[in-house]
TrEMBL record, chains A, B:
The keyword Transcription applies. PANTHER family: TRANSCRIPTIONAL REGULATOR, MARR, TRANSCRIPTIONAL REPRESSOR OF EMRAB OPERON. It holds the Pfam family MarR_2. Residues 24-154 form the HTH marR-type domain. This is MarR family transcriptional regulator. InterPro entries: HTH_MarR-typ, WH-like_DNA-bd_sf, WH_DNA-bd_sf. Keywords: DNA-binding, Transcription, Transcription regulation. The lineage of its organism: Bacteria, Pseudomonadati, Pseudomonadota, Alphaproteobacteria, Sphingomonadales. The keyword DNA-binding applies. Residues 1-21 are annotated as: Disordered.
Length: 154, 154
DNA sequence: TATTGTTATACTCTATAACTATA
DNA sequence: TATAGTTATAGAGTATAACAATA
């Protein structure tokens, strides 16, 4: 008998006493908490240029590409086409991107001059953010971070 | 001069050609993508017991604790009290937890017998999920995963 | 005065369905 | 027929403000 404590078996989670958050040993839970914390932080940083994380991602993605369609962007970023429409629409309204017809059906989403200027600010913000994020990870774990995460979705 | 390609400097991101997703080298971006993918998967698994991830987290958290209040749960899981009310309300309606007055102001959220039975199913689902998640991470990165993530929010 | 808990509300993200137009 | 794009809509998650009741 391994358990002589008299407490009920709660599935190998730490005992209630002395551990404020027994879920913190679960990989999926820690993944969710870390992502939520980091994206909230990035969202705050990006509010400086009045962009959401998804919008900034689009700007970063289409830079240097002049034939990328809305559906291609959606595929790359895992955003449904129905959700791409209002997303691109807002960027167009703000003058950051424009729709350029490729043929009668497809339209390339390209940066405007103003969009490129905003993207420059986005790069400044995200590069600082990404560096700070990595700095917070202890050195012995740092190089394992991106490879481990990429194994979960790529 | 490091760049003789004639392409514009796009902030050290990979060149457009040959890389379908140049954002995949960014720690924050990979963190978001991995978390979204894993939580979507967990959500699908938990639909078997008609629970959302946040609801399952509450059941896992309060097990073995009989004096945990709504605000304490919210603090532990980073859920605002205004959002705890409808969350707990749904669990009460479904008969999985009940509110037990601690004093005139505070109420403990405790599992009902039915809630414990459901929690047993939740444990089966989440343990399988967590194991599968870890299995997908290459062995050399696996032990670094939770420590790295916990450094970002704990 | 601070804390617990609630209601109302709104914004974002995400998802499906239905539709138009073009390849 | 399949693809590109749009609109409408709904379900979650999350945020603030305002409020009542109690410590």
């Amino acid at each position: 008998m391994a358990d002589t404590s008299g407490k009920p078996d709660n599935g190998s989670l730490p005992a209630p006493d002395g551990e404020p958050d027994p879920l913190a040993i679960l990989p999926g839970y820690t993944l969710r908490r870390a992502a939520n914390a980091m994206m909230a932080e990035l969202g705050t940083l990006l509010s400086e240029v009045d962009l959401r994380v998804s919008e900034a991602s689009i700007l970063l993605l289409i830079d240097g590409r002049d034939t990328m369609t809305s559906s291609q962007i959606g595929t790359a970023l895992d955003i449904r086409s129905a959700n791409m429409a209002p997303l691109i629409g807002r960027l167009v309204t703000r003058g950051l991107v424009e729709r350029v017809p490729l043929d009668g059906k497809s339209m390339a989403i390209i940066l405007t001059v103003e969009g490129e200027a905003t993207l420059h600010e986005v790069r400044r913000i995200t590069q600082t953010f990404e560096q700070d994020l990595l700095q917070r990870i202890p050195t012995e774990h740092r190089d394992h971070f991106v490879p481990a995460l990429n194994a979960l979705w790529r």
